[in-house]
Design a protein that fits this description.
Structural class: mainly beta
Distance between the termini: 84 Å
Shape: elongated
Number of strands: 9
Radius of gyration: 36 Å
Helix content: 10-25%
Order of helices and strands: HEEEHEEEEEE
Largest sheet: 8 strands, antiparallel, barrel
């Protein structure tokens, strides 16, 4: 009995000492109070730095000079030299890959021949090509057109080739550096003839970052278009602008 009483007294003494030590050192865990509603919560480690675009959407536009060939039954030569413009919108799928839609236009002017001035032999074609860089003339007069407007016959008119379809952007760093674009879709001719076909294009360049959201690029590319009885192959170069929202 004395041994048990002594053991109990020792245990109580040790427990009391440990309690005093915890009280002095503050070892007892305290429950943290919730932060006030107006407190600033620090951003997690994986959050984007300040100034980086929060959205994955990007917009762009570009333009420049275009040279190539456009073959059409109404034309006696196929030299094409004009201007091109394009607009696009896309979404970044990963850091280096984006997908979107693009609309582009290729523009030149054509000149209609006067009956009896040019024939269809090689000599006449040489004379037509020498008339000026990019000069393009119709091989025949318009037989199905209505009455000519006052002031004389129309001898020159615009020629547009439009393309529309999906595009895929490849870029190790979307904000700056080299990039490449692959696009395809439908193509439509306007003004001279109305035809619908399909196209395949490739462009690439180098983008300079003006800010985290805006970049300007020097680019070049090529476009191939196929229609029922005509085709077009273009090469172009110019500048592009892209905004990352």
């Amino acid at each position: 009995m004395r041994t048990a009483a002594a053991f109990a007294a020792s245990a109580l003494t040790l427990l009391a000492g440990a309690t005093n030590v915890w009280a002095q050192e503050g070892a007892a865990p305290a429950i943290a109070a919730p932060p006030p509603r107006d407190a600033v919560v620090p951003a997690p480690a994986h959050a984007a730095p300040a100034g980086r675009p929060k959205s994955r959407v990007y917009l762009g536009a570009g333009g420049g000079a275009v040279f190539g060939r456009y073959s059409d039954p109404k034309l006696i030569n196929d030299n094409f030299s004009g201007v091109t413009t394009e607009v696009h919108i896309g979404v970044a799928m990963t850091r280096w890959l984006g997908a979107g839609l693009e609309f582009a236009t290729f523009y030149d002017e054509v000149t209609r021949t006067v009956a009896g001035r040019y024939s269809y032999d090689a000599g006449a074609r040489t004379s037509s090509l020498g008339a000026g860089l990019g000069a393009r003339r119709q091989a025949v007069e318009c037989l199905s057109c209505g009455p000519l407007p006052s002031g004389g016959a129309i001898v020159q008119q615009a020629l547009h080739l439009h393309t529309f379809g999906p595009r895929i952007d490849f870029a190790p760093d979307p904000s700056r550096g080299i990039y490449a674009v692959l696009n395809s879709g439908i193509s439509v001719t306007q003004d001279l003839t109305d035809r619908t076909g399909f196209m395949l294009g490739l462009r690439g360049g180098y983008r300079f970052a003006l800010s985290r959201q805006v970049g300007v690029a020097l680019e070049g590319g090529t476009s191939a278009q196929r229609y029922s009885n005509s085709f077009a192959t273009f090469g172009f170069g110019g500048v592009g602008l892209q905004l990352r929202l």
